[in-house]
Design a protein that fits this description.
single chain, about 35% helix, TIM Barrel, 7 helices, about 220 residues, eight-stranded parallel barrel, alpha/beta
Length: about 220
Amino acid sequence: MNALVIPAYFHPAVAGADWRLLAGHGRAVRAIVLNSADGPGPEPERELTAAAVATGRPLLGYVDTGYGRRDPAAVDADVDRWQDWYPTVGLFLDRICTHPDLLPWYTTRLAGIRRRAPGPVVFNHGAHPHPGYAALADALVTFEGPYTDHERLAVPPWTRELPPDRLWHLVYDTPAALLEAALERAAAAGAGGVYVTDRAGPNPWDGLPTYLTKEVAAWCR
């Protein structure tokens, strides 16, 4: 079943209306990625917890891996904070390398994560990675970028072997007139977890799209 996957990189203190709108569309959402401050932040925030729990949807904690260059101890510390401070059921590992040379690094990291943090793990490559990564994560973000790049997306054959719920697309800077085209392209690429927004800039995930209700109706039918 198609569902939305929401990178919620916005705080209820400044985007409370967006969190309430998100809660109203809860059934259409497969997962919400929590990102307090490029990770769990320095301390737990009750306001964020309350807003996230109100959606009734599975929550994934954001962890930056720095394309395999981040200190493993810092990665592990973020994993532990999400587990200890928030009601997350899994993790969203960002800035994952696409090259096979880093497969051993990620294999080691993920083995440790799975011992300490049960639940699904999503790898955000932002592009199609080496197929070996599909054996590690529960889902892969094989596209993150603007609509103008999404419309030129080339899909490698190996992705056809994966069920749609294991492939995610995150598309930003998409005008309302092109929403359905982006959704159709994602479906044709085999993605079952999708999020399209008209927001842009350094952080296009800092709020919900103006057409969220229309997106829910078009994608989750």
